[in-house]
Design brief:
Layout lengths: L1 H13 L15 H9 L3 E2 L4 E2 L4 H17 L4 H14 L7 E5 L5 E5 L25 H16 L20 H17 L4 H16 L27 H18 L3 H17 L15 H4 L2 H15 L3 H17 L21 H17 L9 H6 L7
Antiparallel strand pairs: 1-2, 3-4
Helix pairs in contact: 1-3, 1-5, 1-6, 2-13, 3-4, 3-13, 5-6, 6-7, 6-8, 8-9, 8-11, 11-13, 12-13
The site of one 2-acetamido-2-deoxy-beta-D-glucopyranose has 3 residues, from loops.
């Protein structure tokens, strides 16, 4: 999902508003404070975030763009980080090896060297992904290039697209992202809307009958070699990416029926993956490794998109409750945020856990309409918050 994460930047960059004066620190929102701490890991040499991997860095970048889109204080930081990362990251495209366990979980190994007996991955070719241009059109061109790379990939026996270039697995995340990119481009490239929309609709038609969406409206991890639902873990990010994709598809077609499925999945996921206080969890917690720590934020980010297309009080409560819980129970004195959003704060916090929690704080800030959604840092420290019951 590495390249596709970077695609999301396109929409964000295009939606940045005018630069405003910085707000005083005393009035910083929780999301701004969390961003400050995230940036302690930002490495301007690599354009990536130390302590985390390649696709996670795409998510860090996306979070900054998303916050800048609703909070003008953050725009100068976003501009600086985007222009650095778009140039530097391609020079440090990290070699990673991902392995599917027998229970269909993904294990990631960081290069450049790998455990014996493991075949090193092919050298990553960042072809077309990054070039020397900073303007928005080039970001969009990059997204179109990535889309074409996927579109031209060999077919799978199950339909849809492969997860990997070695063709070992057909799974939900790659297919949801492909759908999402197609739908986003349909709304952003008027000259080729027909082409992107047709691809996205085909992908949608395939996805809903692929077997990955189970009878509870939850999405399992992927398909078996016989093209059946593999009953793999119901991860939060697989319930999330589809929400943004369906919201875009609804906009592109003017057909709101896509939002029915989105609402069904969102509600099923909130019910299945929340604790009794309404706080989101993934089954891996607290040992979610390098990838799983990122997932919940992806759900929140896409729920925020769905909220705009199909507003729901339940979603608003959920976003605010999760943001408030993170701030109250999952934070240390530096404003580092960790993996278990209901708390307690567990080591280690890193750029993956931080950016994921940041996504939730951004969603909370967004549904409250910017600064007015400030979760009241001071009062939160003084008294326990009331969570959604
Ligand atoms: C913080 O914001 C409030 C409300 O907008 C304002 O009244 C107050 O003066 C601000 N505080 C500082 C330190 O700027
Ligand atoms: C920043 O990234 C560069 C390039 O990967 C690396 O050599 C350097 O050690 C990193 N800096 C820190 C503080 O990790
Ligand atoms: C539309 O997409 C096709 C296929 O990727 C490409 O060949 C063509 O140049 C695109 N046209 C425009 C106007 O972007
Ligand atoms: C998944 O679970 C369903 C229902 O329990 C079962 O019918 C199906 O055979 C299982 N599939 C696999 C691949 O284990
Ligand atoms: C809207 O989309 C749904 C789902 O693909 C489809 O069944 C329905 O026919 C569409 N309605 C219109 C008016 O195109
Ligand atoms: C980031 O922190 C999480 C949660 O503590 C941990 O599982 C993961 O391994 C860490 N990532 C790295 C690359 O150390």
């Amino acid at each position: 999902m590495l390249s596709l994460s970077f695609f999301r930047l396109v929409s964000v960059v295009l939606s940045l508003g005018p630069i405003a004066l910085s707000a005083p620190v005393a009035n910083s929102t929780e999301a701004e404070l969390a961003l400050n701490f995230l940036q302690t890991w930002y490495n301007s040499t690599s354009g990536l975030w130390d302590t985390t991997g390649w696709w996670n860095s795409g998510n860090c970048l996306t979070a900054i763009g998303d916050l800048a889109a609703i909070d003008s204080t953050v725009v100068p930081t976003a501009q600086q980080v985007f222009s650095t990362t778009i140039v530097q990251a391609q020079k440090y495209n990290l070699q990673q090896l991902k392995v599917i366990t027998p229970t269909f979980n993904i294990q990631t190994f960081q290069g450049p060297s790998f455990p014996d007996a493991m075949e090193a991955p092919a050298v990553v070719n960042p072809r077309g992904f990054l070039n020397g241009y900073y303007d928005d059109e080039q970001y969009l061109q990059t997204a179109m290039d990535i889309f074409n790379d996927i579109k031209n990939s060999p077919a799978t026996p199950c339909g849809g697209i492969w997860w990997d270039k070695k063709h070992t697995y057909v799974n939900a995340i790659a297919n949801e992202l492909y759908l999402s990119v197609g739908a986003h481009l349909a709304n952003r490239v008027p000259a080729n809307k027909t082409f992107y929309l047709a691809t996205a609709q085909n992908q949608y038609n395939w996805f809903v009958q692929s077997g990955m969406v189970n009878s509870k409206n939850l999405i399992n991890d992927g398909l078996t070699t016989a093209c059946k639902n593999n009953n793999g873990t119901v991860w939060s990010y697989n319930q999330g990416v589809i929400l943004g994709a369906l919201s875009e598809l609804s906009t592109a077609t003017g057909n709101s029926s896509y939002l029915t499925l989105a609402n069904n999945i969102a509600n099923a996921a909130i019910t299945a993956l929340s604790d009794s206080n309404g706080i989101l969890h993934d089954p891996c917690e607290p040992n979610c490794g390098g990838d799983g720590t990122q997932f919940k934020g992806i759900f929140m980010r896409n729920l925020q998109v769905l909220q705009k297309a199909a507003p729901s009080d339940r979603y608003v409560k959920f976003m605010v409750s999760n943001g408030a819980s993170i701030w109250a129970y999952d934070r240390d004195s530096r404003n580092a945020l960790s993996v278990v959003w209901s708390g307690p704060f567990v080591q280690t916090a890193n750029a993956s856990t931080q950016s994921s929690a940041l996504d939730a704080l951004i969603a909370a800030q967004a549904v409250g309409g910017g600064k007015t959604a400030n979760l009241a840092i001071a009062s939160r420290r003084a008294k326990p918050i009331v969570l959604e019951g």
